[in-house]
Hints:
74% of the residues lie in helices and 0% in strands. Helix 1 runs antiparallel to helix 2, helix 1 (3-27) runs parallel beside helix 3 (57-75) and helix 2 (42-51) crosses helix 5. The chain has helices at 3-27, 42-51, 57-75, 81-99, 105-129, 136-165. The longest helix has 30 residues, at 136-165. The chain has 172 residues and is mainly alpha-helical. The two termini are 18 Å apart.
Amino acid sequence: xxxxxxxxxxxxxxxxxxxxxxFLIGDTAAVLPIIGGAKPxxxxxxxVSIALTGVKELTxxxxxxxxxxxxxxxxxxxYGFHAMILAASCYTIAALVRKLFQKNxxxxxxxxxxxxxxxxxxxxxxxxxxxxxxxxxxxxxxHYVPMAIYTFVCAIPIYFLTRGLSAVGRTD
Length: 172
């Protein structure tokens, strides 16, 4: 097996383990505190941070689908909702990082904010606004905004963790 193929396989295993560990941390009741009635969506953070490592677009999209399916599994609702959003977001982020943006904290924060806004606003739109609930403003302010802020705060250490893990097997 070539050195590059071995490194890609090892990196894939490391990223999948990272996804599983962060999924367990995010969905275990006593690990992360509930702040403002919200828990962070760590799968959004890890999907975006993997797409920011410079992986190819289809690889980033695959990780986005995987993280989205885990979100769909844990949050209920139709399977594939978050997977589609994260797949498109991760594909776009990977393409932008490979062709236009540099891999740094500023671009990571910008991409994370945009992805969080996209995921949560579409979730709010399709699960509250479309159904015509009368409390859409309350839910937005007291559920989605704290969850988005908490997710953003968690995105920073996850970005650095993923960036550090992406150096696994690198010999240069």
